[in-house]
Description:
This protein is an all-alpha fold. Helix 8 runs antiparallel to helix 17. The protein is built from 17 helices and no strands. It is globular. About 45% of the residues are buried.
Amino acid sequence: MSTFQTTSPPTQSGWRLPAMVAGAAIIWLALWNVIQPLADWLSYSAFGLAPGSHLGEAVSFFLYDVPKILLLLTGMIFIVTIIRSFFSPEQTRTLLGGKREGLGNVLAAGLGVVTPFCSCSAVPLFIGFVESGIPLGVTFSFLIATPVVNEVALAMLLGLFGWRIAAIYLVSGLLIAIVGGIVIGRLRLERYVEDFVWKIQVGQATQTGVKPTWSRRIQDAWQVTRDIVGRVWLFVVIGIAIGAGIHGYMPEDFLVGLMGRQAWWSVPAAVLLGIPLYSNAAGVIPVVHALMGKGAAMGTALAFMMSVVALSLPEILILRKVLKMQLIAVFVSIVGLAIIVTGYLFNMII
Length: 350
């Protein structure tokens, strides 16, 4: 947490921190643009692995996703912390937390839909919501909606399957987020949020009503970024390593056989299978399309997709650093059950 004084930094250094941030942003963008070609080069040229092979796909996935998620986490935590420095906890609480139960969940779920983040990169925003005093249930509505429903996935579903499927996906995703958040809120599980989350402060100046300087905002944002990334980076690496192994070695024919329409257990099995994997909705939709082309049921395939993006193992491992296991178990159970119901619904009406 920040220990900086409320006095302004020396005048001669006033321009240096913003200039350093601008330089860091350029480096961030450059790194972001070379992750994929660098991962492919390391996997298939430097390491000599065969493109399309199980090991090659797993290694390439790992080398791409680890720096991608760490860059996302670093960038998002820094940006969100800067943005939060303009709003006192009271203002944020008034925006979402001050709404009556239900309306706050709807607003948070709607915000999650228009926020183009995957589940892992939504965690910093989740931490910021909790720190600002927004009710836990409202915060979880945002956390659920952000990965499950996004505009890219909606556009792809519209193009591949038509407006009916896209509309059901949108409505079901919003309902999962809203209802899931309300249920978690009513269970009063705040005691299962790790203590350090409540203690992180976004600058003493903001909390005492003194308008902070830009240098102060940057210093506080960097401090918070270092603290959070330092706590979760190892969990990110472990989670993605597990997901990469499954990504590279999971046979497609096995997935198709599991997701057939015949067995009643295919939907819950697909949801359980999707949890160890990691992708965003846009990345997993082509897989869903290929599986359906081979005979997988629509509802089962979409339940698998929702499970991958909303209950991914990397996300759960990151959340473990901010939530205790009891709350994570409740979160996974509620969202998993809602996704299973959605999968059965799709199979019944399509």
